[in-house]
């Protein structure tokens, strides 16, 4: 990583697909050929020619000639093009507009595109016409674009090299671009460094030649220690997604500028220990275990996203002590679990698990034996949280009488009746369904003794966590005929991928419905989760907001006023005082301060004036008991 010397080196920035997200001529073709019957085909041909030219496959002047011949553009299309391009300036360039204003006179746009559309777009960034070096169109008398000015060096092969030579800049020159012709200025010895800009397009042949690959302009500024709008380039935030969350999650993280990698299926502890170094955000579902060993290897972890409700698979305290925020999606799949549970109750009450396979084997077993309506039956819900209480409402709506048992005091919905003990519920219910959370103390909550308490013929459901039920005891209770049926969605051991065989004593038992942990697996739930979790994580990264974090003290923050200091520390006396004394010693004005603690850690957010001495940050990092510290601009 180099550090920039003063004054700023001359920056030679390409226009098409670098300054803007798109190629100007492609966009012009789109506008000009709007009513052409073969528009798509011609635009496709133009794009292919652009690409071949950019990657060095076709010589530049030939590519330009062929593209202009296909274009049926006119002078009056240009204002439309400019308006369009103004909306397509690269995000990181827009974000750092003030940099361009500040370093006016050191930044050139050198492009094989056309001055007619480049000049007005870059003018918004204080880049004056004399700092734009580009081609110019030729027109016929009627205003039709006929080609390009052949006297302009940029219209020729090696034009950018010649143009830079003519500029004869004294001092360091850095080139930023996405095309091979941008690299060629460096190759010709006219630039000190070539940065392949890949925010919009990454061309292998260009990337291979680069001194540095920069996925955003922020990265260029960060590497060169130049003033930037963000405190940290988002492309440096790497996301590892396991267990196939909906594709929307990766899309949202990518839109934010993060680097996303997905591993289908889960990783076991050893595999995750291998993969976790360098990961900033880990996304998992219910299977991946985030253990102390994993956390020890996690050298850059900021947040864990549980793309599900349960978080028992995560060492929450370990994460907290390391300053790693954990977020889940507490309500996104609630309804899906409830619907499945209700469907399963009906299906079991009608002994469908037995009848369905018989039908598939050609056996017609029409009988009412062992089948009953659920209307008027007693549904015992163990765990009256979000899922349990919603199931309570839906079950009452179809005529069931609801009993519930929860270790916490809960709002009683509708006509539901609270049981004082688990035993009381088990003895009365016709159907028992588990919706407790997966805390370790709940291991084998239901075993032989509990099954024995249940009514003969009762139906049993578990859609919570596998370790909550003693499976051999359940198998015995079904085999003996004491239970009338069971539906199980979660298991003490679940296959890691869809290729692994599912082994269980419950396989083949009568009136037992087995499902592969799909309570929350609906399109709606997965989409909701894939939006909810990334939004919380990005909110935390961007503003420090911990609201709805499962393990950090929850602070909902007001809009950031200036610089924001985010400080996580061990909860020992005196840390806040140390922070404030340090700020006072450096005459830093505090605009707002927010603090919340729990038994292990303290989370303090301090909004301060823009002006402060840079050494304040170093000093704050060194405050005793600091776990994590970051600054947001
Ligand atoms: N099968 C699947 O695909 C899904 C399974 N789940 C599981 O369902 C669980 C429950 O989800 P929510 O209702 O959203 O959670 P929640 O946290 O809102 O409710 C859990 C309730 O269980 C109670 N509880 C805990 N231990 C208990 C015990 N020993 N006896 C009685 N009550 C006890 C708690 O006090 C709480 O009210 C999740 O933790 C997760 O493990 C969640 C979503 C999908
Ligand atoms: O869909 C999943 O992978 C897990 C669902 C689940 O068990 C949960 O949300 O807690």
TrEMBL record:
Pathway: Amino-acid biosynthesis; L-serine biosynthesis; L-serine from 3-phospho-D-glycerate: step 1/3. InterPro entries: ACT-like_dom_sf, ACT_dom, AHAS_small-like_ACT, D-2-hydroxyacid_DH, D-isomer_2_OHA_DH_cat_dom, D-isomer_DH_CS, D-isomer_DH_CS1, D-isomer_DH_NAD-bd. Its EC number is 1.1.1.399, 1.1.1.95. The keyword ATP-binding does not apply. GO terms for molecular function: (S)-2-hydroxyglutarate dehydrogenase activity; NAD binding; phosphoglycerate dehydrogenase activity. Residues 564-633 form the ACT domain. SUPFAM superfamilies: ACT-like, Formate/glycerate dehydrogenase catalytic domain-like, HAD-like, NAD(P)-binding Rossmann-fold domains. Keywords: Amino-acid biosynthesis, NAD, Oxidoreductase, Serine biosynthesis. It comes from the Bacteria. Catalyzes the reversible oxidation of 3-phospho-D-glycerate to 3-phosphonooxypyruvate, the first step of the phosphorylated L-serine biosynthesis pathway. Also catalyzes the reversible oxidation of 2-hydroxyglutarate to 2-oxoglutarate. Belongs to the D-isomer specific 2-hydroxyacid dehydrogenase family. This is D-3-phosphoglycerate dehydrogenase. It comes from Hymenobacter qilianensis.
